[in-house]
Write a structure and sequence with these properties.
- With 251 residues, this protein is α/β, with parallel strands linked by helices.
- It contains 7 helices and 12 strands.
- The strands form 2 sheets. It has a 7-stranded parallel beta sheet, sandwiched between helices. The chain has a 5-stranded mixed beta sheet with strand order 8-9-7-10-11, covered by helices on one side.
- Helix 2 links the parallel strand 4 and strand 5.
- The relative contact order is 0.17.
């Protein structure tokens, strides 16, 4: 059994993880951290990591970038592995995560879906095959409550393609540009509306042919399952940075 401290336990993803853990997995929510206490919770609760003192095996974080410093301080003090699923971090915050990984194991991913990580690999392959003969555009759609744009997943896809297309330049908004599209560009576009869970599409547009690779998440449970799998995987690991490729390789 893997005992989990759930950071962001009162959010929508927190609720999904709680429900998923209760449905017969080898994970149990030992405690939750959030500014609001979830109703009907059967685990210990604290409004901050400074107030928390619970024995656990792993921290799973689906909260807010503002929580990062206190989360990492607590994790390093308690020597607890962390599964960090929050998006919207600054480059400085990402560096803090990498530094903390020298002391504790950290699983960091902008998307916990198996399907998304598969299309990332497919996008890298397509970019290698097409080279500069195809223009690349990434379109992501999410619900109207999502704070960050573009999504962490869209940036994961762009970063993966950039491993192949090494001279890539990200373009987020074209209305200010009065010029033809450069071959180096990777366009990244965000749509926010309704209760869209998560839609990602990579468009490879060439001369007389277009290839589209897309993924549609129909519920948040796909991310919850991935996060709990990552928690079980990370338990007992040595300090370092881990991601979905490590989890998939262990299957």
């Amino acid at each position: 059994m893997t005992d989990i401290i759930l950071s962001g336990c009162s959010g929508k993803m927190g609720a999904s993880i709680i429900a998923c853990a209760a449905s017969g997995t080898d994970c149990k929510i030992a405690a939750g951290v959030d500014i609001i206490e979830p109703q009907g919770a059967d685990f210990a609760f604290a409004k901050s990591f400074e107030e928390l003192d619970v024995k656990a095996d792993v921290i799973v974080d689906f909260s807010n970038p503002a929580v990062l410093d206190s989360l990492l301080a607590y994790a390093k003090e308690k020597k607890l592995p962390c599964v960090i699923c929050t998006t919207g971090y600054t480059e400085e915050q990402k560096e803090k995560i990498k530094e903390a990984a020298k002391e504790i194991p950290i699983f960091y991913s902008g998307n916990m879906s198996l399907g998304i990580n598969l299309i990332i690999e497919l996008a890298k392959k397509a970019a290698a095959v097409f080279g500069n003969n195809f223009d690349i555009e990434i379109v992501e759609q999410h619900h109207n409550q999502k704070l960050d744009a573009p999504s962490g997943t869209a940036l994961m896809i762009a970063d993966a393609v950039s491993e192949v297309k090494t001279d890539a330049e990200y373009v987020y908004d074209r209305h200010a540009y009065r010029k033809k599209r450069d071959k180096k560009e990777i366009g990244i576009h965000s749509v926010r509306g309704g209760n869209i869970v998560g839609e990602h599409e990579i468009i490879f547009a060439g001369t007389d042919e277009i290839l589209k690779i897309s993924h549609s998440a129909r519920s948040k449970s796909v991310f919850a399952v991935g996060a709990l799998n990552a928690a079980s995987f990370l338990k007992g690991k040595e300090p370092g940075m881990y991601d979905m490729s490590d989890l998939l390789a262990s299957k």
